[in-house]
Amino acid sequence: MKTVKYLLAEDQMPTAWYNIQADLPTPPPPVLHPGTGQPIGPQDLAPLFPMALIMQEVSTERFIEIPEEVQTIYRQWRPTPLFRARRLEQALDTPARIYYKYEGVSPAGSHKPNTAVAQAYYNQQEGVKRLVTETGAGQWGSSLAMAGAFFGIEVLVFMVKVSYQQKPYRRALMEAYGARVVASPSEETNAGRAILAEHPDSTGSLGIAISEAVEVAAQDPEAKYSLGSVLNHVLLHQTVIGEEALAQMEMAGDYPDIIVGCTGGGSNFSGISFPFIGKKLRGERNVRVVAVEPAACPSMTRGKYAYDFGDTAKLTPLVKMHTLGHDFVPPGIHAGGLRYHGMAPLVSHLLELGVIEAINVQQLETFAAGIQFARAEGIIPAPEANHAVAGAIREALRCKEEGVSRAILFNLCGHGHFDMQAYTDYMAGKLRDYEYSEKEVAMALAGLPSVE
């Protein structure tokens, strides 16, 4: 019998998150205060985040225990299955062994609840009454809305306007969980009003939505801000994915030669890859790790490694990351969760160290890959996940060309059931690719802050 899925029992779920900061050969550059240019301390972040998350942000402990209350909720869908994509291998006629970790089995349909539940728990422990956040495609917003319902916390979501319009069912899901959803840029904040005054037809961006959410949270003593990607503690919470995958690959009697992850802010990519990269950094096992980003928002492949703001209104601290500039507004491609101007500092640091590599893929190739995957494996991927599928297919076809069998592992970070309009548009020939001129890239980077 050829096994298709590898399942762990609930009592085999990891009980601690893996912290890659323990194994880095050099620490990442410090986060800087936007006013003084000096490294920030925990108290600088206290207005926005609970202290437990701030301490996780700077921790260098290799493992951080997952609270029992969080583990209990995780068990609703974790451990998630690891699949051997035998039908896709057959369709590609490749000697590659393709595996995918499927995070679409969570109630919200993606990997995002792994950190949403943890963040809601730590905020509740500090007595926080409201959480304010942003969302692009809606996967993060719906996950935090669900977590807020579990822990009795109000949730306000600023949703990037183009996604708000493209994805009404994601909005409905957030509202069903009890969240209030506002199209961003909005008239509810100074940041939103300023953008609308200058660009009345603005389609929005994650940078703008973050500005609105941070502004509201900072002015409300009973509220905190919550972010679904980029920050160290968010990436930490997602490593439960890769830790499970380590055990499941062992069950399969295999080990990945290549790990592929779609990459916007870096959370699901880090989740699947960091535990394996940790083994690589410790000299235990080697692996090639490929981050796949959209050509329409290519922070790693065409951006600059520099200090930048995480938001458009420059309300956040300065972090060193691969960035297209905080003023960058990407086209309204359907992979809304990957439309962020910057890459997670830890992912950026690994790219600078040469530990990982990055490629960008055009929108049409990703949807073609998603359709091919769906027809072979039966799962419709989210548009974001299609980037990982496209990257994995490229690697599998390379194996075919070279006549070599390699193990390829990727994270199928969510299903596309709320994204069917994107597939309808693709099959109707309405989607297109985007190319940036060097001039456009240079203009987007011109506003980077000057940091000595």
Low-confidence stretches: none
What can be said about the biggest beta sheet?
A: 7 strands, mixed
**Lateral arrangement of strands in the main beta sheet:** 1-4-5-15-10-11-14
Cα distance spanning the termini: 61 Å
User: What level of helicity do the residues show?
Assistant: 40-55%
Q: Count every beta strand, where a strand is a DSSP E run of 2 or more residues.
A: 15
Q: If classified by CATH, what would the architecture of the domain at 67-109 and 233-438 be?
A: 3-Layer(aba) Sandwich
Computed Rg: 20 Å
Beta-strand percentage? 15-25%
- The level 1 CATH classification of the domain at 67-109 and 233-438 is Alpha Beta
By helix and strand content, what is the structural category?
A: alpha/beta
User: What is the typical, i.e. mean, pLDDT?
Assistant: 94
The name CATH uses for the topology of the domain at 67-109 and 233-438 is Rossmann fold
Note the total helix count.
19
- Which outline best applies? globular
